[in-house]
Design brief:
The protein is of the alpha+beta class. The protein contains seven helices and seven strands. A seven-stranded mixed sheet has the order 1-2-3-4-5-7-6, sandwiched between helices. The N and C termini lie far apart (37 Å).
């Protein structure tokens, strides 16, 4: 079952993110890795900045989370994680489809360049990578991340973004 995350879900969201983020250890640049991958203060800052989480719940346990953040003319998919032991069961796809169906704006997704499994997942769900120049522009416009993270990330966009728009 998918439901909106609540304040009471904070600890489980935190645990899910950090369980799943272990997949990045040894893949992303060492200067971008730390433990926990996301601290409680960082998670709270993301929520305070407008990231709204949806949770996939199975047997009264959150096993997947995915956030969406409104950024004026687009929405960003943020912090998409499925617990390590629950991967490859369609949880991420269900969460992504739930967030997409409620959005009327173009959707952008940023992820680590080294996370080829994540890039492949989003491409299977009809998102497409943008070129390096556009990636740099989008990351600086819509995300608040260090330059080093910009260098080591990619951006994928949905069909609504790729259609001609009045910018």
């Amino acid at each position: 079952m998918i439901r909106k995350g609540t304040a009471e879900d904070f600890e489980e969201i935190f645990t899910t993110i950090n369980d799943a983020a272990i997949a990045y250890k040894g893949l992303i640049p060492p200067d971008r890795w730390h433990e926990p991958y996301m601290t409680k203060a960082e998670l709270q800052a993301q929520i305070d900045d407008g990231v709204r989480f949806s949770c996939y719940v199975d047997n009264n346990e959150i096993i997947g989370v995915m956030g969406i953040q409104n950024k004026t003319d687009v929405e960003l998919i943020r912090h998409a994680y499925v617990r390590t032991k629950q991967r490859k069961k369609g949880v991420g796809t269900l969460l992504l489809k739930e967030l997409i169906k409620s959005s009327t704006k173009p959707i952008l997704i940023g992820t680590w360049k080294a996370a080829v499994w994540a890039i492949g997942f989003y491409e299977k769900n009809c998102f497409r990578l943008v070129n390096e120049e556009e990636k740099n522009h989008l990351l600086k416009k819509y995300w608040s991340i260090p330059d080093r993270q910009v260098e080591t990330s990619v951006v994928l966009v949905d069909e609504k973004y790729r259609k001609p728009r009045n910018v």
